[in-house]
């Protein structure tokens, strides 16, 4: 992950980079790739980073497999993640092995296992399962502030000190 603290401009640049690689993936740029999986209420999103944690590919699909942060269509969720994984592997011409996923805060005991199983069921080796604010802060590096995650079905606010 980036070592410097991010600004609004650099956050916007990361979003722009991701948007660009969704449209035009960057092939052959890394010896290893890391995939982030977001099982959202409105969309399932996969983001692929290279060995330097730079975005190289991404894909998403509108889906109704999660409601209020909970997986409600387990088989459908696996199918969508697997299909997106295969789509990205074809575009990058490589196998995607490693993935991490994030879950809404406070749902780890209720649904963390289901999300982990979806990611593994789609063919990934799971490297991390974090709550969404912790995952966001791994990039943002906020020392004193808040992470506000406004999603399609849930909103999470975490205060960081």
Automatic annotation (TrEMBL):
It comes from the Bacteria. GO terms for biological process: cell division. Residues 34-140 form the SHS2 domain. It holds the Pfam family MreB_Mbl. The keyword Zinc does not apply. Transmembrane segments: none annotated. NCBIfam families: EutJ (TIGR02529), PRK15080.1 (NF011660). This is Chaperone protein DnaK.
